[in-house]
Amino acid sequence: MSRTRTGAGALAAIGTAVLLSGANAGAAQAEQVLPADLPLPATQLQNTDAAQAVGGTTSGLGYAIAPVKELRLDPWAGSSADFLNNGVAVAPDNGMPPVATSAVTGPLSNGGGAKDLPVAGALLGALPL
């Protein structure tokens, strides 16, 4: 059997040489000394303004949460394929008012989001925006 040579081995050798020469250039650059007129870096952290940090976080968080609160949870809302449009009601025999699922599924089948749900909507109202 004869062995044929391809350019892949030569290309790998050239790539290795380029990578190794780049590593030496980086090491040479790391050995540079700063000029004497530059101040030394500070070794202490600056004081943090907690009010600005909290203010920035809450304002940014509001813009991130607002789309989630208004996101349409039922993609088939308002169509004939909407399975949440069907409701179930149970009327107890002891004179209590009927209990139905439409109170929970109604806001979703009308195209609402999480903010329109009875309990979760009130909880999401406490979030910014």
UniProtKB/TrEMBL annotation:
Keywords: Signal. Residues 1-30 form the signal peptide. This is Secreted protein. It comes from Kitasatospora terrestris.
